[in-house]
Amino acid sequence: MTVLILTTLLLMFIAETQSVSKETNIILFLADDMGWGDLASWGHPTQAWNTIDDLGNQGLVMKNFYSPDSVCTPSRAAMMTGRLPLRSGIWSNTTYRAFEAYSTNGLPHSEQTIAELLQEQGYTTGMVGKWHLGINSYSNTDGVYLPDTQGFDYVGFNLPLGNEVLCDETGLSSAAGPSPLTCFLYNGSDIFQQPFNHEGLTQKMVDQTKQFIADAKNDKFFFYYSFFQPKVALQPDIEFLGTSSRGVYGDTIAQMAWVVDEIRDTLLSEGILENTLIVFTSDNGPPERLCLYAGSSGILRGGKKSFYEGGLRVPAIFYHQGAIEAGQESRELGSLMDLLPTFVDIAGGTLPSNVTIDGRSMKQILYDRGESEHDILYFYCGVVLFAARSGPYKLVYRRHQLFTVEELECFCPMGIPHDSNSCNMTTPTYYCNGAAVEVLYPPVLYDVEQDPSEMYPLPIESHTAIFEQMYEAANEFDSGLPTTPNLLDSMDCEVVPCCTVMDDLCACNYNGRAKTFSQYDCIQLMTL
Q1: For site-directed labelling of 234, which of 110, 136, 285, 332 has its Cα 20 to 30 A away?
Q2: Active-site residue list
């Protein structure tokens, strides 16, 4: 009996060692603007259960997982570097919070990305999908900031900016037609379509992902599948259209779930599923401005561009068959910034010592039911401190005004967003300061475990200890941050990608209706 027990314990130890092997493959699925409440398993009443829900049911879900910012570029920069975006210069003195086609900067090459650090550990790296961390610097073809310059060995079809309202090919959300100024598709570092055609694009990305896995299956690899969904323009392929009782947004989620299913099945058929960590999460919350064409924050208040919970808290699912215990729900604090140190930890590497890494490894949370290494998380809009989270508490320094019912009804007749300029928008939530931002003094304290909708501020007089602790910690942290040059304000229409030599056309390999583009259009956009 003693020998049997010892043998069993030894086998358990070996299994545990294998589960966190330095040879573990990593696949990261990142959704674009998916809300905390968008999945059936996260409480949505009409979204059908799908493969993404299955991953959570068979793995671990983190219900207190955050994006450091509520907009694409800074949240993705933070995820890629493990650092608050302002440390990388991802901020602006004006209204810009994301890179545009005419931006002359991108994620600095001095930053070390997830892909670069995993390359150092012998990983083959690849990606498809949305990038949004820079394109060109001095011409419309230099590609200085495209993903192949940031540590990715393989880059398939990618959208340097992403999928926007102006990429709508149906005319339902944008009467202007898909814009070549915004909507372009690259294959690797070469422009492929301008504007791009949605039909069949997801299938192409899935095919490239499958081929990457087949080619790299005998090595350890990191693959970044960055969805351009479910952000508007919503154009699911025909086989998914009309399949969801939730409407076209639900159809889009169904197509995303199909992607995850196809790639998981590929891992299974290649015999490497048990040696692969799969992560599914989102870059930030859903844009309320897009109504039925946007996602759901569930019980959380607010959405994209705001610093309410609905803009910052995102779904997070971790699946590693046979290694991560199935059916777990963790309420530990986590952040997109934690992915870099977690992946490096799993790979057996060390973090760079010459920069501050704000993320913390979640390896113990994932594999050993451990606790978060975060005492407190900070949330900045540009260089302005908006909020902090510690344990169940959230301290709010500033908050955006939310859209009124009347504004949303104007933006979205019958719930469908349209690019009409006739609405008198008095509460823009894009800016980090100004009339739309309410400065709170003293800051307001919430218990977002009991009150996730941030409806009931706690009286400071009965919560003096935690208020003072968070207030002093946040002020000390804020005062110690270095000053970095802002990268979002540098713009030049000469760097806008153009696949032809005719400035008034800039359209190629596109078989739908498209608006022509000129430098005048670019200048007009820059001055908005």
Answers
A1: 136
A2: 72, 132
